[in-house]
Design goal:
Length: about 350
């Protein structure tokens, strides 16, 4: 595991999230999926309890549910991705800039994160054009980190803002997971994905510490760490075919977390002279109910300590990289304990990303 300690302390000034107009109750999604797959998955009724086991009550969707019953090509779905990703990314950025009291002309860097659609030029270029941001902005498009992308984006933004204490870095995560659904993929992985994944768009503003005197309540970036686990590529990801992105999703993810996460978190924190008992705020990507249970068991956490993580899962579903930023937004909106916070997410690779924050109320 690579550990990075930041001597100059950048901070997270604001986070915004998007509540999409086509949110749907999990029961509605369950009924539609059963209708779509009934003919071609004979054991469909034995699989249906998966919807209840997710702990999700409502899902965030970019399009109405009936869109996903239509026969669409990968080209059509990717066109929808590019259209809506751009629109909602701009909305999220505008909200984050407003919350942080930042003019768009001050932005020095933009990190764009996604794993659910394709665009070249990358969407950060389209955002700069549409918003008329400074054409000299440093661009960093990141593709393929999946659920780990939101935490990785914050870590990379902190590195940029450490190198330049005057930096104002935009991190934008856009995941339209619903548009990757392949209607005629009758695999169990695709079925489980249909019970779990949804759409999310979030943005955050991270500033170098030359801006700190202008901000009262701070989430200061202290350190971050990345780890790639050897020979685990088959745990999570995409297989690519003529019809688009076919989900790869192992049932062993919770077991893998249970086997590794305590050692990794302990090693990361000990590098800063800390233990798990020093962490007051757990900003974890939920993954799913079994993933939350694995975190709870392995790290000996309480349900209350992961309440924001569970709330986001219940009210939005798994939005891949954007999800952890929704959790972070809940801490910033609903309150937090003074002290250290740990952002954590795991994703394709298989890999983990962690950011240590020092969180102080005004």
């Amino acid at each position: 595991m690579v550990y990075v300690t930041l001597n100059i302390m950048p901070f997270i000034a604001a986070v915004s999230k998007i509540d999409l107009p086509h949110k749907a109750r999990q029961q509605q999604v369950k009924e539609q999926v059963r209708h779509m797959f009934l003919t071609d998955i004979p054991q469909i009724d034995r699989l249906m309890p998966a919807f209840e086991n997710t702990g999700i009550e409502e899902r965030n969707f970019v399009l109405p549910l009936n869109y996903y019953e239509q026969d669409t090509t990968f080209e059509q779905r990717n066109s929808e991705y590019r259209r809506w990703a751009l629109q909602y990314a701009i909305e999220a950025i505008q909200a984050a800039l407003a919350r942080s009291g930042t003019d768009k002309s001050a932005v020095t860097d933009i990190i764009f994160i996604s794993t659910t659609g394709l665009a070249t030029p990358s969407l950060d270029a389209q955002i700069i054009n549409a918003m008329r941001l400074d054409p000299h902005i440093n661009r960093m498009p990141i593709w393929g980190l999946g659920c780990a992308g939101g935490t990785a984006g914050v870590a990379k933004a902190c590195t940029l803002a450490t190198a330049n204490p005057n930096a104002v870095v935009l991190v934008v995560a856009v995941e339209l997971c619903s548009l990757t659904l392949i209607k005629n993929d009758y695999s169990k992985s695709n079925f489980i994905g249909s019970s779990l994944f949804s759409d999310g768009i979030a943005a955050c503003v991270i500033k170098g510490d030359n801006h700190s005197s202008h901000h009262q309540s701070q989430f200061t970036c202290v350190a971050h760490a990345s780890k790639l686990y050897y020979d685990t590529e088959d745990i999570m990801g995409w297989d690519f075919g003529n019809e688009g992105f076919k989900v790869v999703f192992s049932k062993d993810i919770p077991s893998f977390i249970n086997d590794h996460i305590l050692e990794d978190v302990t090693a990361f924190l000990s590098g800063k002279g800390l233990t798990l008992a020093d962490i007051r705020n757990f900003i974890f990507h939920p993954g799913g109910t079994k993933v939350i249970q694995a975190y709870t068991y392995a790290l000996q956490l309480t349900g209350q300590q992961l309440a924001n993580t569970s709330d986001v899962m219940r009210n939005y579903g798994n939005m891949s990289s954007a999800t952890v930023l929704y959790v972070l937004e809940q801490f910033m909106t609903n309150g937090f304990e003074d002290g250290y916070g740990l952002m954590l997410a795991m994703g394709p690779g298989f890999s983990s990303e962690m950011v240590l924050l020092n969180m102080k109320n005004a």
